Amino acid sequence: MDRALPHLSDTFEGSTVEITGHAESESLEMVVHGRWNAALAIDLRSAIHKCLAEHPTVLLADLRDLGDPDGRSAPLWLAAHRAANLRHPHVRLALCIPPAAMLATRLRRVGALRFLSMFASMPEARAARVGGLAPPDRLQLTLAPEPHSPTRARDLVTRACLDWRLAPLRHRAVAVVSELVANGVEHAGTPLRLTVSRRGTGLYLAVQDDDPRLPVLLAPSSHEPGEPLLARGHGLRVVNVAASAWGARNHRGGKVVWATVRDSVRQTDA
């Protein structure tokens, strides 16, 4: 299994791309700022890669503040759609673009409306976001920052794997959620909200806390003999090995640390 680095999305003032999550629809929103150029293209490819790794039901891109008078970013959005379509289950990609924008015109000319949803406003896009989607299989649990919380998290994931007939994933998923919750207890020290959702034949695990600091994956060499594995971020190395993908993003003044667990190998990212 590939030992990929985590997908960390740290939003700060002046960011060209902002990513936010919506728990109820299990979707992500990506707001793009600035004029289209090579640097913004790199930022967007990275952001799309991170979003698809998290495997939301819907990825909604708000392009109203994107300065692209010639519609030169069209190939990137077509490629993003292809990458989203490779997920199992597929990630629905939707764009919010002013109808008169050249980008919208270029996308319409190549027939993108046949497979790519485009909306003129964010309220319209959000209203349509869950249309046609079945309610996700999801379990949630609020946890106190206490030593017994990882045990409660493991019990919930075990139940989910059995109820959803994903027993082959149980050992890896239990290891991942145990470390995510333990890390939240130790380093965030705030109430935690655990979400366990089914993604086709895989699992999505997320722990939300009120500490905005993103986790740090330490190098193996920094571990001192006799020191507990969990100390100073080493427990996240268990997540890095057992998860198919994992990462973190800022959320409402705190953060969400997430992981996906799938059969055997990592799913190819965009």
Any overview of this molecule?
This protein has 7 helices and 11 strands. With 270 residues, it is an alpha/beta fold. It folds into 2 domains: 7-129, STAS domain (Transcription Regulator spoIIAA, 2-Layer Sandwich); 138-261, Heat Shock Protein 90, CATH 3.30.565.10. The strands form 2 sheets. The protein has a 6-stranded mixed β-sheet with strand order 1-10-11-9-8-7, with helices on both faces. Strand 10 and strand 11 form a beta hairpin. The chain is globular, with a radius of gyration of 19 Å. The model is unreliable at 228-233 and 265-270 (pLDDT under 50).
Total helix count?
7
What is the fold-level CATH name, i.e. the topology of the largest domain? Heat Shock Protein 90
Strand content: 25-35%
Average of the residue pLDDT scores: 87
